[in-house]
């Protein structure tokens, strides 16, 4: 994808990127150094590519399939979130809303499925109690997926 960098003296802190006609347009403050520009162009390209990948995954359908297979309730909504940096997923049991970190589109499907099952289990038990873990570990690759996520957390920090 072609990249176009637009610097602005009016832009002080924010950095923005969008795809316009097949071109990645990155808007930057004029005060950034060339090294900072390179960093942010690379980072924005990575974010846009991740977002594009996440649109190819039908989370609601996947959650329905997993809910049926593991006898769990279906979520009210389930979406990818690019804002989740500290958690792989989150659940609001009172609304049934589940958010999955968009970082997971880079991981194997069985890891994404584990995180979905983990969050679906929170629809029954909001806390990480013994009952919760009994429900969440219905997923046969739960222990393997947890190990994978722990390793990835270590690489990110």
Compact summary:
The chain is of the alpha/beta class and 157 residues long. The chain has five helices and six strands; from the N terminus they run βββααβββααα. α2 packs across α3 (109-122) and α3 (109-122) crosses α5 (142-156).
Describe the fold and architecture.
The structure is a single chain. The chain has 157 residues and is α/β, with parallel strands linked by helices. It folds into 2 domains: 2-54, no CATH class; 59-156, Metalloproteases ("zincins"), catalytic domain (Zincin-like), CATH 3.30.2010.10. Helices cover 43% and strands 21% of the residues. It is built from 5 helices and 6 strands. It has a 3-stranded mixed sheet, covered by helices on one side. A hairpin with a 2-residue loop joins β2 and β3 (23-29). The longest helix has 21 residues, at 34-54. The radius of gyration is 19 Å and the shape is elongated.
Report the mean per-residue pLDDT as an integer: 90
Query: Nearest-angstrom radius of gyration?
Result: 19 Å
Query: CATH topology of the largest domain, anyone?
Result: Zincin-like
Largest sheet, described in full? 3 strands, mixed
What is the chain-wise order of helices and strands?
EEEHHEEEHHH
Structural class, judged by helices and strands? Answer: alpha/beta
The low-confidence parts are: none
Count of extended strands: 6
